[in-house]
Design a protein that fits this description.
With about 290 residues, this protein is an alpha/beta fold. The chain contains 11 helices and 13 strands.
Length: about 290
């Protein structure tokens, strides 16, 4: 029986099977998702964003050498015992909260066959439900969690939603870019998506960033999507197929985005998150001001 999809988004897929080559040698033996932004690994910020939006089931797509991610979101008896014995109650609470944030589930992507294939790996856990996809490279700092801004659009229209932000025309070749009609100031109806266009051919300056609300039809579209270069199945190609068949929206996300998959973006995020910390901000600012730049 084809049950009606639910109108609420309770599951999130976080693809984390990539090799992290842009951060070698740091990522040779440790996953790029575990790189610390101040004192929390990148992937924890993304999980916290999903949880803050009411998502309770987190499906992480992993690959070889990613055990550290599973261990991070698991209970750590020895560490907890040590903190308890040493009376470090604050740290103990913080460590316990990580494992209790959500229900975590892991799927191995045995071959690095692209983002589309990674999402296909989660099909059996999603079933006939809408779901969120959050990429760990994009850290979004926003008063209303970015994925929640998109869930609100999904709840209105019951259709797929892609997170977008304007980028300078000179940078469009680094992104998937939407062709779309504006509906409201921050909302667009997508007619097509173009992967990494040359600036002269870009249909807009609205770039797809790593946040999606997808409906189960995406799986059929992914199965039909031929592999592109490197034998990878691209999510953008499947979204193009889907956009021909049904209405799809682009939500311009409010908030500051950091491209943490890029060394410069990662450094910027580190500085700005460090400055925002109540315990570090003041002394860190004084230190930065003291530098003879």
């Amino acid at each position: 029986m084809g049950a009606m999809p639910s109108s609420n988004v309770t599951k999130a897929v976080i693809p984390a099977a990539g090799l992290g080559t842009r951060f070698l040698p740091a990522t040779k033996a440790s996953p790029k998702e575990m790189l610390p932004l101040v004192d929390k690994p990148l992937i924890q910020y993304v999980v916290e964003e999903a949880v803050a939006a009411g998502i309770r089931e987190i499906i992480i797509i992993t690959g070889r050498g990613k055990r550290a991610i599973e261990d991070h979101f698991d209970v750590s008896f020895e560490l907890e015992e040590n903190l308890r014995e040493n009376g470090k109650k604050g740290l103990l609470k913080e460590i316990q909260a990580i494992a209790e944030m959500a229900d975590f589930c892991y799927v191995r992507q045995r071959h690095a066959r692209g983002l589309g294939h990674a999402i296909l790996c989660a099909q059996h856990l999603i079933g006939n439900e809408p779901f969120a996809v959050l990429l760990g490279d994009d850290i979004l700092d926003a008063p209303v969690p970015a994925i929640q801004q998109m869930i609100q659009v999904y709840q209105r229209f019951q259709a797929p939603v892609v997170g977008i932000q304007p980028v300078p025309k000179s940078e469009v070749h680094q992104y998937g870019v939407i062709k779309a009609e504006p509906i409201e100031p921050d909302l667009f109806q997508i007619t097509d998506l173009v992967e990494k266009p040359v600036p002269q051919m870009a249909p807009s300056n609205l770039a797809v960033i790593g946040r999606y609300i997808l409906t189960p039809e995406i799986f059929k579209a992914l199965e039909k999507t031929p592999p592109g270069k490197n034998g990878e199945i691209q999510l953008t190609d499947a979204l193009r197929i889907l956009a021909q068949q049904k209405v799809m929206y682009g939500k311009k996300l409010q908030g500051m985005r950091y491209d943490a998959g890029d060394k410069l973006g990662f450094l910027k995020a580190t500085v700005e998150f460090g400055l925002k910390r109540p315990d570090l901000g003041k002394p860190f600012l004084q230190y930065l001001k003291s530098l003879k730049l």
